[in-house]
Amino acid sequence: MLDIPTTHKELFKTIGEAAESINQQVFVVGGYVRDFYLNRLNSDSITDIDFVTVGSGIELAKSVAKILNTDQVSVFKKFGTAQVKHQKLDLEFVGARKESYRRDSRKPIVEDGSLKDDQLRRDLTINALSWNLNPDTFGTLFDPFNGIQDLKKGLIRTPIDPATTFDDDPLRMMRAVRFASQLNFEIEENTFNAIKKMAPRLSIISKERILDELNKIIMSPKPSVGFSLLLNTELLHQFFPEMVNLLGVEERNGHSHKDNFWHTLEVLDNTAKMGGDLWLRWAAILHDIAKPPTKRFSKSAGWTFHGHDALGAKWVPKIFKRFGLPLDERMRYVKKLVRLHLRPIALVSDEVSDSAVRRLIYEAGDDIDDLMLLCRADITSKNDWKVKTYRNNFDRVESKIEEVEEKDQMRNWKNPISGEDIMKALDTKPGPVIGRVKDRIKDAILDGEVANNYDDAYQYLLRIKDDYLDK
Ligand code: CTP
Hints:
The chain is of the alpha+beta class. Among the domains are: 6-153, Beta Polymerase, domain 2; 419-468, no CATH class. It is built from 24 helices and 13 strands. The chain has helices at 6-21, 31-37, 57-67, 115-120, 147-153, 162-168, 171-183, 189-198, 207-218, 223-232, 235-239, 241-244, 260-273, 278-286, 291-294, 308-323, 329-340, 343-346, 354-364, 368-377, 384-408, 419-426, 432-446, 454-464; strands at 25-29, 48-54, 73-76, 81-86, 89-95, 130-132, 141-142, 155-156, 186-187, 251-252, 255-256, 296-298, 302-304. The strands form four sheets. It has a seven-stranded mixed sheet. A two-stranded parallel sheet has the order 8-9. A two-stranded antiparallel ribbon has the order 10-11. Helix 19 (354-364) crosses helix 21 (384-408). The longest helix has 25 residues, at 384-408. The chain starts with 5 loop residues before the first helix and ends in a 7-residue tail after the last helix. Residues 30-31, 50, 101-103, 122-123, 127-128, 169, 171-172, 175 line the site of cytidine-5'-triphosphate. Cytidine-5'-triphosphate is lined by residues 30-31, 50, 101-103, 122-123, 127-128, 169, 171-172, 175.
């Protein structure tokens, strides 16, 4: 008997009985079965379950809906598929077919097939596993391509010649890498070689589908597994040339710099270990992205990358746009972290003034803690002593930030003086001069010349206002 959640077992039995009543065979297939054998079935996060039937998927869905007493059935006649909504689940029914399968495909079915025909046109052996649900054979596993063995060996492999599988849907190359990254599996040699050969075919895939897989790779426990595969198969070259450009080390006069590609992956893995969300991870990916064009060598300074923080931040919107990532506050967050990622290091020295700390708190706002996480993730030295020193330095910076924050509360700082106040004091109308005065007050407060409160700031305004009269 299958050791699955009772609610699912009851549901599967109902579906088996529904199929039996219309003389069809039904199987649960794909992610559900795979995740069961991987011990990663999480009933809370399952949103959809795939069923394949030998016969009509639509008739079966209707019969299931009747037994479940629901009218929530969507039929896609042209594609021979139907969906039943049951509690929080989308139950997807499809008739076994001879052509390639993918859930989001909008290709009509041309020819019905057997269960095996259907399984062999799926993407990976581990995704082609299925259990029969009819009453007499409930729970019988069908695994014609040794998917279980591949799960045990940790292998990603296509059921048939990989060239055919990837030709059917080139996104499957990204899916192969994504599953390898999520599960820490290896891609079998033939499958790997086919991806490398066919990587340019990714160009026919929409950016939304590519991004969906890429984000799953980024969110996997150790994203460097996926990114190394993306690099080695040259899939990365198809959609992320800036990242490929980070690869390589140059040496001059005995000086070499670190390889920024592998460094970036270490930083990314570190943010993953810290439980960083998608956006902190994107900041890790992009923090050094503009190092190649800012790279210089001089005898006195060795290798430098001056301005890579500012240039990288400038690139963030165009990279986000190209990938179809959101251009809202999430983009601005990543841009901000890229722009500021070197600033905490500059605050290490004991002589650092409160005003420099205040400025950083002001600029980072509520993202100051995430900025410090990124900086800590950026420590990738192999020298234990250095790692310890850098970490201690950041501990010191963090205490300084806390101290200054407690004193001045600059985190979500708002200028105590409003535009109205300035217009009144200068007896003038709205215009650019108001912004200039406001900035000067802001600088005076951040520099500690003026206390951070209305009265002191207003006195300061009265002192400086003459500089702006008739200007
Ligand atoms: N499938 C396929 N080719 C694709 C996409 C999907 O063959 N390009 C098949 C696989 O058998 C897969 C099933 O459709 O298992 C369901 O696809 P999907 O819901 O996208 O993925 P899951 O395997 O369920 O995994 P996850 O939910 O982790 O994405």
